[in-house]
Amino acid sequence: MFHFTLLQDGGTESCYRTTLRFETIQWSHAGEWLLLVRSSAGIADASVLLNVTHASGYSHAHIRSASITYLLLCLTLQAILREHRR
Q1: Cα 33–chain centre separation
Q2: What are the backbone angles phi and psi of residue 73, rounded to the nearest 5°?
Q3: Given this model, what pLDDT does residue 56 score?
Q4: CA-to-CA distance for 81 and 70, rounded, in angstroms?
Q5: Cα 9–chain centre separation
Q6: If I label 10, which of 60, 61, 67, 83 is the partner at 20 to 30 A Cα–Cα?
Q7: Which pLDDT tens digit goes with each residue over 19-72?
Q8: SS3 for 61?
Q9: Burial of 47 per CB tally in 10 Å (0-12, 13-18, 19+)
Q10: Contact 11, 17 (CB under 8 A)
Q11: What is the pLDDT of residue 65?
């Protein structure tokens, strides 16, 4: 289970740029994940690749904070909203 914070900083009518910040990421979390988003407009899903890198000078097994921006999520939400408007 991840602890995360969703940060929304605006957008357009059908697309929001959103950052999902995870705390305590481990090397084993790297790989492909399925992202599901549900709202009153419907459900969107996207395959997201999480790449965990080692910051220079950092030697712990956990990365305390990682920010991931989901462009694919934006495109998926646009497609779903277009379908709901028809």
Answers
A1: 10
A2: -60, -45
A3: 61
A4: 17
A5: 14
A6: 83
A7: 666 667 778 888 888 877 777 778 878 787 777 776 665 555 444 444 444 455
A8: coil
A9: exposed
A10: yes
A11: 43
Would you mind telling me the total number of residues written for the chain in this entry?
A: 86
Least Cα distance to 18 among 29, 10, 26, 28 occurs for 10
Give the phi and the psi of residue 81 in degrees, each rounded to 5. Answer: -65, -35
**Tokens of residue 38, six digits:** 């549900």
CA distances from 48 to 29, 56, 83 (A): 12, 25, 22
Q: Which amino acid is at 40?
A: S
**Six-digit token pair at 15?**
């697309």
Quick check: 4 and 12 in contact, CB under 8 A? no
What are the sequence ranges of the domains in the chain? 1-55
Could you identify the residue written with the tokens 């694919």? 72
Strands 31-39 and 16-26: unpaired
Give the dihedral sign, CA 72/49/25/45: positive
User: What is the pLDDT averaged over residues 63-84?
Assistant: 54
